[in-house]
Amino acid sequence: MAEFKDIVEQIKQRNLDKALGLCESSQNNKNMHIILNFMGVIHLLKNNLDLAETNFLSSTKIDGKFEDPIKNLYSICLRKNNLKDLLFYAKKLIKNDPLNNQYNYQLAYALELNNELDEAIKYYEIYLNNEDQDKKKGLNNIGSIHLKKNKPKIALDYFLKAISFGEDKIILNNTLNCYIKLRDIVNADKLYIKAKETDENFIEFILNKAEYLILKNEIDDAIKILKKNKDKPKFLITLLRLYFNIGENDKGNELLKQSKSQIKENPELYNYLGLRSLYEGNFDEGWIYYEHRNSKKVDFFKDLKEWSGEKIDKKSIVVFNEQGLGDSIQFSKYLIPLTKIAGKVTFVVQENIKNLFKQDVKNLSIETINTNKNNKYDFKIALGSLIKFFYNEKINFKDLLIQSNNQLDLKWRNQISNSRLNVGLVWSGSFNGPNEPYRSIPLEVFKRFFDLDANFYCLQNEIWDRDLDYFKSLKLNDFSKYKLNEVASIIKNLDLIITVDTSLLHLSASLNKETWGILSLYPDWRWGKFNNINPYKPLKFFKQENFTDWKNVESSIFEELTLKIKNFKKKGPEGPF
Question: Which among 59, 304, 374, 576 could bridge 36 via Cys, Cβ 3.0 to 4.6 Å?
Fold first, then answer.
């Protein structure tokens, strides 16, 4: 139609007022939805987002199948960071035209921004499996999601495939980031050179450079880069963490003091402020900002109202664990006071740890996410958010919810010799776990231990490459293949557990087994002032005194372990059983 052609031409030439006049003079009942879309585009170009949105919405009300205003509304939601509506319009587009592959990409991107990561991957894969796709872009986005999920090994595969379709600074730096997270120095060296040659002023490269220098233990040079860019959130957080990790607490506290207003204005930094406040015992502020932790974005019950402390004596509530296994074990104690004020409590946990929880606690049901996604409750709350309501209450140790299986206990009692002290050992956590690599210890640090008159049992299920050769040379009893319910019974039949800060520390201490916990110089927030309120009774800590130096820990444990073995021998060949 001629009037449409004239409007388009005026828009192209940026004669926006003239184009608007043509729209007003050309509108009629038949073309109103098209004219409203044009008017929305004009206001969008004028940067009048609200007016543009109003016109696009009016257009869709006239003709819900007209895709142009829906696409434009998607763009406005991106600009306004209105993620919920972004997802709504992405779903509307794919519903209107399932064969349009670009809509698969847009839906995947909207799902990613709404933190529905598994669904996002699904639609990116659909996008990649069609002919009209940008392989590099799709592969890079899937890799980025796996990085968000802290799975750099999987992410790396996607980035390397993306690179095969052409290198650019974004993918090169994503790949470099993976090698840094995997502590693969050889490949990090290669990618560092490539990324630097491509664009050494790219902000992601500058951040990667700082992380690369930390990996190479060139701490002073890393600090210089981070300080120069501390006005940017990621650099500030990295610098703060680095100061505390290396024991420069005065500098860390001073920077935190200087940056508090910056942090409070930037939601990206809230989680760090929450963790730091909780570590220091500033609980009123800490719990507020802890609600911004990344894991809180995981929500298995989106349509339920979150409990905020109101009366629920006649209501049902579902508590779900959105963090790691250790959190589920440690913080499950706060379900006990909840059962006393709620009508009905359901705790949803990972499938592999369901059997670790007592099944006969009054007013408490232990379930898994797969069996409870469609169940109806009055309220929901994440386990990490439940703590703030009950953290100050004293929890009786006998009320802890963790148990072992009696039959498995008996099985392992018959298999484990009691002629010598039996020691369970965990020297490293998950490769991509929190506070790595600082919380984990090279196995060779404990070399002297293995000459002592004791039986040692490997309880961890992941052996780092750096430890593999030495591990194979030892005569350690390797129990790394067993699932957690089996490990619980093994722990029950050992005399002592020596472990770094992993879920096995929580499991052992919850089972009332004597546990020696090893902490890095700056450990997780839960071992700060919070630990004074409801500590594990059988847990004793050995804390690092100098950054990356475990000598004081090894020496203290060796001395106490030698004494314990000596005292054990005095009990005779039957041991302590």
Answer: 59
